[in-house]
Design goal:
The structure is a homodimer.
Chain A: H1 4-13, H2 16-35, H3 60-90, H4 92-113, H5 122-126, H6 128-134, H7 136-173, H8 180-189, H9 193-204, H10 209-219, H11 223-250, H12 253-279, E1 285-286, H13 287-296, H14 301-313, E2 318-319, H15 321-332, H16 348-358, H17 360-383, H18 395-419, H19 421-426, H20 428-451, H21 468-482, H22 491-506, H23 508-529, H24 567-578, H25 583-594, H26 598-634, H27 638-646
Antiparallel strand pairs in A: 1-2
Helix pairs in contact in A: 2-3, 2-6, 3-4, 6-23, 7-9, 7-11, 7-23, 8-10, 11-26, 12-15, 13-14, 14-15, 16-18, 17-18, 17-21, 18-20, 20-21, 22-26, 23-24, 23-26
Amino acid sequence: RMDTRSMWLYRWYYSGTSQWILSFIIFLILSLAFIETPSSFTSTSDIRYRTEPWNPPCGLTEGVEGLCLLAFAADLSVKSYLVGWAQFRKSLWLLAYLVVLVASFLDWMVSLGLVCQEPLRLRRLLRPFFLLQNSSMMKKTLKCIRWSLPEMASVALLLALHLCVFTMFGMLLFTGEKDDRQDRERLTYFRNLPEALTSLLVLLTTANNPDVMVPAYSKNRAYAIFFIAFTLIGSLFLMNLLTAIIYNQFRGYLLKSFQASLFRRRLGTRAAYEVLSSTSGGAGVRAQDLLQVLRRVQVDGTRKQVVMERVRSHGSGLLSADEFQKLFNEFDKRVTKEHPPPPEYRSPFLQTAQFLFGHRYFDYLGNLIVLMNLVSICVFLAIDADILPRDRDDFILGIFNCVFVLYYLAEMLLKVFALGLLGYLSYPSNAFDGLLTVVLLVLEISTLAVYGFPHQGWKPEMKGLLSLWDMVRLANMLIVFRFLRIIPSMKLMAVVASTILDLIRNMRAFGGILVVVYYVFAIIGLNLFRGVIVAPPGNGSLAPDNGSAPCGSYEQLEYWANNFDDFAAALVTLWNVMVVNNWQVFLDAYQRLSGPWSKIYFVLWWLLSSVIWVNLFLALILENFLHKWDRRGHLHSLSGDLEASYE
Amino acid sequence: RMDTRSMWLYRWYYSGTSQWILSFIIFLILSLAFIETPSSFTSTSDIRYRTEPWNPPCGLTEGVEGLCLLAFAADLSVKSYLVGWAQFRKSLWLLAYLVVLVASFLDWMVSLGLVCQEPLRLRRLLRPFFLLQNSSMMKKTLKCIRWSLPEMASVALLLALHLCVFTMFGMLLFTGEKDDRQDRERLTYFRNLPEALTSLLVLLTTANNPDVMVPAYSKNRAYAIFFIAFTLIGSLFLMNLLTAIIYNQFRGYLLKSFQASLFRRRLGTRAAYEVLSSTSGGAGVRAQDLLQVLRRVQVDGTRKQVVMERVRSHGSGLLSADEFQKLFNEFDKRVTKEHPPPPEYRSPFLQTAQFLFGHRYFDYLGNLIVLMNLVSICVFLAIDADILPRDRDDFILGIFNCVFVLYYLAEMLLKVFALGLLGYLSYPSNAFDGLLTVVLLVLEISTLAVYGFPHQGWKPEMKGLLSLWDMVRLANMLIVFRFLRIIPSMKLMAVVASTILDLIRNMRAFGGILVVVYYVFAIIGLNLFRGVIVAPPGNGSLAPDNGSAPCGSYEQLEYWANNFDDFAAALVTLWNVMVVNNWQVFLDAYQRLSGPWSKIYFVLWWLLSSVIWVNLFLALILENFLHKWDRRGHLHSLSGDLEASYE
């Protein structure tokens, strides 16, 4: 559709504001999970100490949700209007959007009809879909994952075969009739087929590594070979093969998407040229026409200025296609940010001072001072390690911190003097510094105001929100945080740190997929395992007696806070299972308390999060780093390279 | 040196036999570590049950070692004679070889002089050097590792910074004065700086993941953010960045070494051409000359035949350089192994039978039967899980196995009939099958011979070496093993499996480096920690009371067998630390029993094995797999590609 109204709607829909509003609505509907019953508004999720959470009255979250759903309906109608009915029927994503929206509405109405007492909220499971369909990158990533599924399945099959063969071997090996010790291996890990399979599955993640071999290995060294061979083949070969397969699928992923976006941009430029040149009879583009258009489009201000400048300097002749293209290449260039000029002082003394304090050696001195401050804090931490906090003497540390904060203040002011306020703030590291210095200053002044000047044996009572000790502690933490300013000063570390920053920029799609997976599994877990774990008998305020629980069990390790009783707790529990270490404890506890089928949930989560997602993440890091490395190493202009490849 | 004697020596030295002898001597001197005091010849390394090991008399291992050292001296002298004095002085490896050899001899003499009572055997540490210097691939890999050291150091620095900043944060965060629960976090994990550092270092490997956050998280949900942020940045970002750096260094490693060897070969061919053509006046090579030379060189028989055939067919004209090169390309080609022709039968019945049993559907039937056998074993394992082995009735399983083994025998014979004996053996999968079938048959027959025919309630007493149950068990294990023959039949799995096989071929250098690192660390560990762990009081045959040990400690987990009291035990202990899970238990135990400096040893081992080596291994897998993938996917002849790149 090319009529004026559609164009206006298109512009408005894809403008920054409306996209931002859409993102906010998605965020809002996703974050409802924290508030809805069971709400996560308790200070702890430990079932022994947990207080009754505040539950929102019926209609509050439902009202917000209804508004969100209405917004999505509007979004869908605009989208489908823009793509047209013919496209809409073909687009699976839009159709799914419609279905999900209708299902959510129906479920929402059922909820309201039952006055929020419904046993199951299906729509909570569907919510992550809104996040998914709004990001084209995430859809692309999903497609990539789908492509690598067949090969991943082959490795998974190999893994399953490996697991089964070793399980049968183990069952036949550890039967132990004569000996008490060998029998312990059987009784603990190889009692029956499902248990043996679980033991070896956990060993595949190395989470029960020495333990599973201990009883057998204590009897005979040779049994170690069985376990070592299993881990070697399973964890080292097959798991890494999975990584290789996933990485292979994502190789060139970044380059390809970069190429595609560049290609689309060039195509757009060319189309614009054709349109503009048609007004002047097809021979070229008049500079005035271009200037007129440029004045009306919304793009980044500084670059637009540069391009318009260039167009003006071109004179009144016609622009050829090549020149036109080159002009627009200006938009692709990375702007090297220019710092505002430093203020100019007349007096030679001030000029010398400006040179001194604007020099990078002054930065180094600052870094050194921060380091000294850190060392002083370290020393005090080491000295005070065995003294209880209330007996610590904060006199000297207080004085030290005061002195250092004064130095930071002086440094900031001198730098502002040397570079000018805008010049100072144009460096991100300075802005970071300055912010922390101001916060530290405010903290120090409020400490002085509340507790007075420091003196020997200075241990005032607590006044206001924070005790003196807390104030000092907070100041120390901020100083530690301020220390991070040294990162850009070290060349090698700066490269690595900038890679990480680039990575974070590129991995929004991966993060989004992680959010979707976490969300879905947390909601499922909430429905399956809510209230399954029951607090042990005993007074909440006293540490309950856990002497009776066997070592290594959920109860003995006091994992009470890791449960599925509310959304936030479920997220942390899922994180802990994803990190894999000790996940057999959760496996065992939930198997005991809610049945053996719970294993399926945990194993699925392990596969999705720890196996697939972590490997995906590794692939992304490899891709990003090698991409960057290639650019640095071969010094070839990527853009020029691409030009050659698609022309 | 080009004189006849040197040439003869060169040929003899690089012949298969002498290189094999050298490898064997290296293997011998390395394996001495198992025999020398403290010898590893006990059935278990568990200090509670261990018997006094047999110790070799003084002079036995020393004698073998002396012979080995003499052999190395001969090897060194031949090598240095062949490279010449000028080259020798420049080659660091040869100089180091000399130094190591002299040091070993001196140490050996000291040993003999002290009648094997010396406190420290320095030369045991030096032994892996002999392995290292003998393999050019390992030297190359080491060089690769050295190149990536600067970047690895930058990430390590970042990791250290990350660790330090979070340690200080943690120390300032977990001071807990008012609350008993928050104080538990401090007392357990953040008592003082070294302990906090250790806790977070272990968390970096995720080995104490939920535990370290449990006390704080039980108090307030927000504390989880600290630990999650730490793991996210440390384990996911920085550790994977290390992987990326190592992989980046090893990218193209295989391709490069392949290129280099091809290039050297081409260069050699060209040189041979020049030499041969100079005899005929420089215009070309006479075919007779080439045939004469070919007759005298030692290369693979079948290929030589092919090349000589081609030379003869060329006639008596002169060979140009191009033709000469093409002839020698024959040597680069992969020979596709030809199977011997099947026997030809006259009778049509026999021909039909041959067609039937030579068909691949007959293979599939065999696979199906193996699967059925496996299922039957599984069923019996599941049924008998809760019955003690001595009460199990093996009657039905015995009959089943008998029937299946008879089928396997029939299958083997029919296949031999269809393909001929040589044709049958020319397939590796058939050879594997046949071998296992024969072993199974022997086992079944000996079972019959010893215990007679099976009958209901068949539980004979033990006769000979193995009881009936053990015999059946062994047969079952062999059947499980035989099941692996299905792997090549499944296409996707065959690709993955062949990648793994390729990998094993390519990773000898990596394996060698692992052996070197393990050897050195095991010897150091032996010297540092031998006898540090003392058996708990109590009778060895009774399970000692471990109720008093705190949960999660070395004593409670009964890791007694994981110690450094002999070489084999040290290897297993190092493996367990390398797998990382629960390594904090070893860290803690050795810190308690031999001092805080022991941490350095374990952390160094973790860095070398788990961080560097495992990443190296992953890089190798990625490299291999992608290499293979490229060849399969793009279908470009690598050899042709290389030709273009170096010409």
